[in-house]
Each structure stands twice: as C-alpha cells, then as structure tokens.
From TrEMBL:
Its EC number is 6.1.1.17. NCBIfam families: gltX_bact (TIGR00464). Catalyzes the attachment of glutamate to tRNA(Glu) in a two-step reaction: glutamate is first activated by ATP to form Glu-AMP and then transferred to the acceptor end of tRNA(Glu). It comes from the Bacteria. It is found in: Cytoplasm. This is Glutamate--tRNA ligase. Keywords: Aminoacyl-tRNA synthetase, ATP-binding, Cytoplasm, Ligase, Nucleotide-binding, Protein biosynthesis. A motif ('KMSKS' region) lies at residues 239-243. PROSITE patterns: AA_TRNA_LIGASE_I (PS00178). The gene is gltX. The keyword Nucleotide-binding applies. It catalyses: tRNA(Glu) + L-glutamate + ATP = L-glutamyl-tRNA(Glu) + AMP + diphosphate. PANTHER family: GLUTAMATE--TRNA LIGASE, GLUTAMATE--TRNA LIGASE, MITOCHONDRIAL-RELATED.
Length: 465
C-alpha cells in the first residue's frame, strides 16, 4: 500500500447536505489536502426507495458552496453492486462465509421468543456448520463466519482503543436472498477498491467498524485508519435537529453566511488548535490533525458562527465578495444585482465589509449605493427630517459645490458649516444619512459621500429640498 493519504466522504442522497455531514466532509478534505493526498466522493445510493437525483445534486451544490473540491469522478455505490456480490461469492468459495436458509419469519420468531425469555436476541444461524448435503433447494443469504472467541479491537484515532467481545458479533449477512449486497459489505469493498487509507466519519458508525473489520480480515485487506468523530449537538446539548434551526449547508448559504466563515466555524466544531478561533484555510490545512479532535459532542452556536463570518468578510478580497454576494442572492431567490450595482457595491466595499457579519447585513448597509433617486426614507430616517433640518441642508449645498471632494476637505467643510450654525456635526449627520441613504443606520457620512461622488450627493440634497 502506498503512503499517500486517501480520504472519502460518502453521504446517502436522501436529502440536503446536513451540517454534520458538511463538517465530516471538511475534516476529510483538510486531512487529505494538508498531506498532498486525495479526497474522494462516493454517493451511497443503494437505498433505491429513498435515494433521489435531486438529493445528490443538493449534496454536490452544498460541497461546491463550501469550496470542498473532490478528486476524480463521483462514485455511485449502487453502480458497483456486481463487484460487491463478487466479494461475497469469493468469501463463500473460500469457506469464510456460508449459505443461510433461515427465513425472515424464522429469525423474527427466534428474536421474539428470546426477548420474552430474557435471552440474547443475537441470531446464531443453524446453517453455519450444517452438512452441505442437507441444504435445501431454496433461496439463501450469504453470511460471514464471525469469530466467536476473543475480542475485536478498533484502534481509533479519536476514541482510543475500543474493544468488542466477539461473542457479541453475529454472522453478518453479506448478500441477501435476492442477491443484493448489504450496505456493510458495499462500504468495505468500495473503500478498499478506492484505496481509502483513513476513514473519518461520525461516531454513530463506531460499532460498524467492528463488523466491517471482519470483511477486511477475511479478504486479507489492510484495515484503514479509523477516526470516529463526535456528533454535533444544539445549544441545549441535544442532538442537532430541526428545532435548533437550519440543518442544511445550503440553507446557510441562502441565509447569507460567507463560505470561508462557515469553513472556519465547522473546523472549530469538535477540533481545536490551541486557543485559535479565527484562522484561514491555509492555517487550517497546516494545523489540522486527528489528535486535535475531541471525544465529546460539539455544540452549534450561531453567535460564534456570525462572529467568525464577520471577521472573514473583513479580510476578504472585494471582487471575491462581490461574486459571492451574487451567488448568495441566487441561492436566496432574491433579484441579482445589475452590472452597475455590482460595480458600485465593490467600490463601496471598503466601508461595508468591516461592520457586517452576513450578506443581508452588508447589503442593508449598502442600500445608499444600490438604491436610485429619488431616495425613499424609511420610518426611522424620516424622523431626522423636518423643516429645520431641510433648511440647514439647503444652506449646506453651495458649500459642497465648491468642496474638492477629498475626505479631509469634506470633513473640514461639514465641521466648519456645523460650527457656523452653532451646532456640532453630529446634529447634521442624522438628516444627511436620511437624505443620502434613506436609512438611520449607515456607513459614515463621509464614506458615503466619497462613494456616491459630488454630482450624486448634490442631486440627492436637491431632491430632498
């Protein structure tokens, strides 16, 4: 086996990309990318009744939004069913598996009786050591011969050594009586054939590892490195569910969270690097390792997410933010910005991106540059406009006609004008915000004037008068 790291993300296409799945994908992506390895994607679509092309599309879109690129083609598990069955037949031929003729009804009856008598409901097939001559001409499942003594040790990079007594393991079915492979077999065969070296997944799969190891060992294949990560809980400490709010990665895109902030936050959910909260992708790749993953569930905290998103927006490239905002508007079903609006937004970014945590917040602050004349003042802004303030703004207009339109000059003109009126600039700011933006909360008046330019500012003042 080569030394190259190969990880994988293997979601079932039965719905959106869950936020927990997104974090699993991120951990796999970071681990592979940091080590020059491969990050593969497999869609576990063997449940034909619940798997849909729409769900597959939603998962791919969610990964794409998060910037988690995968190597090679997307693998369909269902498409590999023949290969899975071939492995079951090989184990049968080698005597490491056997034909079981017990019917579902017989197994159910055994379990009910065992339950009623307080015995173990672990089914031991009577066909394990039966004479082949006694086998009926009837449908059969293929079961693996599980070890019956000793213990299986899962050497897990997160959970430590987990020991399971072999007398707790049943002879797992590999191939059902209708010839279809079970999920447990499919996962192992796919991971082996794809060359997966590290299986990083939720700790709800921990017990599966013991059963999957039986197949690796029976086939003489190298067992991958296991890393079972704790689940994500809501702020109340219960498993993350609908009552905690949004669950799908794309819902967060549609709510206007930047992808870089989401990556940073998801990386910090259950993994840590010292006390570092805010970090870039390059830092995350350099630092990420399995020993930084905690054993207990992480709690999802929207305030922390927003805080990190704000920090990432502040350091983002303006043109990249403009692109991501257009993608957000599309995801949220909101009208796109015109080319002119997008260009104006990018010009204004210097006075917008430091004070917003989400794209809706940023766009609200950008209202002054995205709106067109005549500017409609909202209820709060109207309160700053009365006959007195309008009269004062009228007097201000000629002073602005002669200003050289640099920040220093504008500050000097406005402060000088306020002084001549026997007031402070703060008293002018409210009416100016109302006239320039139609809002009471905006970027600084000077920043807005610089972005809008002299002609537009004078035109808005004239409109108000």
């Amino acid at each position: 086996m080569s030394d190259a790291v190969v990880t994988r993300f293997a979601p079932s296409p039965t719905g959106f990309l869950h936020i927990g799945g997104a974090r699993t994908a991120l951990f796999n992506w970071l681990y592979a990318r940091a080590r020059g390895g491969k990050f593969l994607l497999r869609i576990e679509d063997t449940d034909r009744a619940r798997s849909t092309p729409e769900a597959t599309e939603a998962i791919l879109k969610g990964l794409s939004w998060l910037g988690l690129d995968h190597d090679g083609e997307v693998i369909s598990q269902f498409a590999r069913a023949e290969r899975h069955a071939e492995v079951a037949q090989q184990l049968l031929a080698e005597g490491k598996a056997y034909k079981c003729f017990s019917t579902p009804e017989e197994i159910a009856a055994f379990r009910e009786a065992a339950k009623a008598e307080g015995r173990s409901t672990l089914f031991r097939s009577p066909w394990r050591d039966a004479d082949p001559a006694s086998q009926p001409d009837a449908p059969y499942a293929i079961r693996i011969r599980a070890p019956q003594e000793g213990e299986t040790v899962i050497r897990d990079q997160v959970q430590g050594d987990v020991r399971i007594r072999n007398d707790q393991l049943d002879d797992m079915i590999l191939l059902r009586s209708d010839g279809t492979p079970v999920y447990m077999l499919a996962v192992v065969v796919d991971d082996h054939d794809m060359g997966v070296t590290h299986v990083i997944r939720g700790d709800d799969h921990l017990n599966n590892a013991a059963r999957q190891m039986m197949i690796y060992q029976a086939m003489g294949w190298q067992v991958p490195v296991w890393a079972h990560i704790p689940l994500i809980h809501g702020p109340d400490g219960k498993k993350l569910s609908k009552r905690h709010g949004a669950l799908g990665a794309q819902e967060y895109q549609a709510m206007g969270y930047p992808a870089a902030g989401m990556r940073n936050y998801l990386a910090r959910l259950g993994w840590s690097h010292g006390d570092d909260e805010f970090f870039t992708d390059d830092q995350a790749k350099a630092w990420f390792d399995l020993d930084g993953i905690g054993k207990s569930p992480a709690r999802f905290d929207v305030k922390k997410l927003e805080n990190l998103c704000g920090q990432h927006m502040a350091i983002s490239d303006d043109a990249a933010l403009r692109q991501e905002i257009q993608a957000y508007l599309d995801a949220a079903g909101r009208p796109a910005l015109s080319d002119q609006q997008a260009a104006d937004l990018e010009r204004a970014m210097f006075c917008l991106k430091d004070r917003a945590r989400t794209f809706p917040e940023l766009l609200e602050k950008a209202h002054f540059v995205l709106t067109s004349r005549p500017v409609e003042a909202d209820e709060k802004a109207k309160k700053a406009l009365d006959s007195v303030s309008n009269g004062i703004l009228n007097e201000l207009t000629p002073h602005l006609r002669n200003a050289s339109w640099t920040r220093d000059d504008l500050e000097a003109v406005l402060n000088g004008f306020a002084e001549a009126q026997g007031t402070k600039f703060g008293k002018l700011a409210g009416p100016l915000r109302a006239v320039l933006a139609g809002r009471a909360v905006t970027p600084s008046v000077f920043d807005m004037m610089l972005v809008l330019g002299q002609d537009e500012v004078l035109a808005r003042l004239t409109d108000a008068a």
